[in-house]
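Exam revision sheet. Question 4 asks you to relate a sequence to its structure. Input first:
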Amino acid sequence: MICEGYELKDQKLETFESHVLPHLKAGYNLARWMMREDSAAEDMVQEASLKAFEAFSESQYEKAKPWFLKIVRNCCFTQLRKIKLWRQVELLDETLASSHDPESHLIDKIDGRKLNEAIQNLPEEFREVFILHEVEGLSYEEISEIVSSPIGTVMSRLSRARKHLQRTLLERDFKSEVKR
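Answer key, structure tokens:
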């Protein structure tokens, strides 16, 4: 009887590892954007992983990524409510090593910085949907499940996020051109 219980736990762990652990990086990325700090994001992913393992069942096999990201999101919101502090987003630097030309490397870095700043300044509900769709590649339906909002709301927020980014980046470019 005892051995049977261990077999079930081992099987649950193996299944959890194969279905949920591949999404740890996506969970960290979301937590990083929400918590705005590496160590806090790591803590949230760890907490979410524990909660996910406790709640894991066969019903999560097919949609493990959105299910796990929703747990990460909820852990982050719970923590943010506790500390009542929203820090500025510090984005992970994008890999610019692919460019060997120093001039284009500098231009890419400047453009990346402008984009990161523009994303930082998005309202939270827009930034969250933008990251889940554009960075994590989730569908509207998956995002809808994660943020507990109708698909129409997700689509609207994503559209507004894109318009906001476009407007912000165009204004910055225009201002920098005027200064020259």
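Marking note for examiners. Residues 151-179 form the longest helix (29 residues).
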